[in-house]
Design a protein that fits this description.
Elements: H1 5-13, E1 23-26, H2 32-43, E2 47-52, H3 59-67, E3 72-76, H4 82-96, E4 101-104, H5 119-147, E5 150-155, H6 168-188, E6 193-200, H7 209-212, H8 215-223, H9 237-244, E7 255-258
Parallel strand pairs: 1-2, 1-4, 2-3, 4-5, 5-6, 6-7
Bound molecules: NADP nicotinamide-adenine-dinucleotide phosphate.
NADP nicotinamide-adenine-dinucleotide phosphate binds near residues 31, 34, 78, 80 and 107.
């Protein structure tokens, strides 16, 4: 029998990146990148569970997602409280009967010269970004292990792989996230769970908007980014949907940097010269 290769290939590919019937939990969706991650997953067909320490703050965003045709639920979550994590994951698992995808996005930052960082600053950053992400993943993975399926996406940062003055404890938390990702991939891979780290570069959000008001600093930043601009939150749509989808099934323990190339080091080894200018001889 003659097989129509082109039509069988296209019908096979028509479900690429389709998240229909998948349930995604995105932590920290009251503002910022978490909302972009949730919106991208909802557009790909997933049902969504949203979180904030103040559940009431999620109402408007929940309505927006429902308008996209997405089933949506909200739970209270403080990732610095073990009790809150247990209650939130129990509520989230009950909402639609399962969690297929976790985006470990909740996080915070305190920018200070290293000599001014206090004991409390260190604890707050590491407890939120690193300990919180681990225990949320642990609570969610228990259900995933029973169902032999899961996609865990830990949000890292370009600071997972590079050092920046003023971001010591934050960088330590994000470097830890990268290491945690590799270890959890090894722990849970045998149960059909992939664990990856999605690492944004420099994106303007509520967490850092003061920085972007300083034109000189923005110019300094863009000079070091090969693609010559800071990230736009929707630059992360494709990468998060890929890592959440069936199409990333053989990718685990990896860091996907979405940073315009700043993690290359991007330091000029030649004096500045306009593109196309004659080469120095
Ligand atoms: N913006 C960037 O350029 C960039 C780059 C790389 C990585 N990241 C990381 O990406 C994530 C989102 O960044 P963003 O810029 O969108 O931050 P953001 O605007 O400050 O939003 C942070 C979110 O995390 C939640 N959160 C903070 N502390 C929490 C806690 N103890 N328990 C539960 N939720 C908590 C907040 O929710 P509530 O306050 O409502 O509880 C909020 O929804 C963060 O982890 C950040 O470190 C950001």
């Amino acid at each position: 029998m003659k097989t129509d290769i082109s039509s069988s290939a296209s019908s096979q590919h028509s479900s690429f990146f389709d998240l229909t019937n998948r349930v995604a939990l995105v932590t920290g969706t009251s503002r910022g990148l978490g909302q972009y991650f949730a919106r991208a997953l909802a557009r790909a067909g997933a049902d969504l569970i949203l979180t904030s320490r103040n559940k009431a703050s999620l109402q408007a965003f929940e309505s927006e997602l429902r308008e996209l045709g997405c089933r949506c639920a909200s739970v209270s979550l403080d990732v610095c409280s073990e009790q809150s994590i247990q209650a939130a994951i129990s509520d989230a698992s009950a909402a639609f009967g399962k969690i297929d995808i976790l985006v470990n996005n909740a996080g915070m930052n305190i920018r200070k010269p290293a000599t001014e960082v206090t004991w409390e600053d260190w604890n707050q950053i590491l407890d939120t970004n690193l300990r919180g992400s681990f225990f949320v993943a642990q609570a969610v993975a228990k259900g995933m292990i029973k169902r032999e399926y899961g996609r865990i996406i830990n949000i890292g940062s370009v600071t997972s792989v590079a050092g920046y003055a003023g971001l010591g404890p934050y960088g330590a938390s994000r470097g830890g996230i990268r290491q945690l990702t590799m270890s959890l991939a090894d722990d849970w891979g045998p149960h059909g769970i992939t664990v990856n780290c999605l690492a944004p570069g420099w994106f303007k959000t509520a967490q850092n908007k003061v920085m972007y008001e300083n034109k000189e600093w923005v110019q300094y930043l863009c000079d070091r980014i090969p693609l010559k601009r800071p990230g736009r939150p929707d630059d992360l749509d494709g990468p998060v949907v890929f890592l959440a989808s069936e199409e990333s099934r053989y990718v685990t323990g990896q860091i996907l940097l979405v940073d315009g190339g700043i993690s290359t080091g991007a330091t000029r080894a030649l004096p500045a010269s306009p593109v196309g200018a004659p080469k120095a001889t």
